[in-house]
Amino acid sequence: AWTLLLSIAPPSKVQEFVKTHLPKLPQLLQSDDVNMRIAAGEAIALLYELARDEDEDFLGHDIDSLCSRLKQLATESVKYIAKNDKRKQRSSFRDILRGVEEAEAPNETVRFSVEAIYLDSWVKKRQYEAFKDSLGAGVNQHLQENELLRDIFSLGAPIDVAAYNKQNKISRFERHLYNSAAFKARTKVRSKQRDKRTVTA
After folding, report:
1. Is a pLDDT exceeding 70 seen at residue 191?
2. Which of 4, 50, 97, 134 could form a disulfide with 70 if both were Cys (CB 3.0 to 4.6 A apart)?
């Protein structure tokens, strides 16, 4: 929960957390619980992102040792970890490693109805996951209609989906023309391929 609050905290508070929490978080990467390891890793990536917003050359304490551990978690193949947990851990820590080592942000797209939000920072990812955990299956409806959430994710005013669909609907005749053109193009390509095979033979 503190990482969610940190995502909207002023720079002075961020710097305080970077000094007090970042040196301690790598210890949690040794946890036996995969979810704890991932939560600690994502918190580390978030802190690095926020710290680099103020100082783009920020490296933190002993970044080489940290990246070595992150690489290990991103490629770990020990047998005592369940297959699903292993896949989840590897995927998460590949992103976390890129965030810490290369300052590369996540790149996820969440689609809902006719819209989408782009989780292109650790801050956005943390905020979206917090709302998803709280709202469950209703998160998409809230993204469509809840003005607060739409403001947080810069979605603008709610869209009239029915009007949008009507405006962007392709007419039956237009669809027929498109399908006919696509069919002719495929037929042309196949004819050329047959001709080539005939010449070769």
Report:
1. no
2. 97
Structure tokens at 13: 């508070």
The Cα–Cα gap between 53 and 41 comes to 19
Query: What is the maximum span of the chain, computed from C-alpha positions, in angstroms?
Result: 76
Exposed/middle/buried for residue 83 (C-beta within 10 Å: 0-12, 13-18, 19+): exposed
Query: Per residue in 153-187, pLDDT tens?
Result: 988 888 877 766 666 665 666 666 766 777 677 66
Cα–chain center distance at 85: 18
**pLDDT tens digit sequence for 37-67:** 999 999 999 999 999 998 999 998 889 999 9
- Tokens matching residue 125: 């990812």
One-letter amino acid for residue 181 of the chain: A
- Are 126 and 119 in contact, with CB atoms under 8 Å apart? no
Radius of gyration of the chain (CA): 24
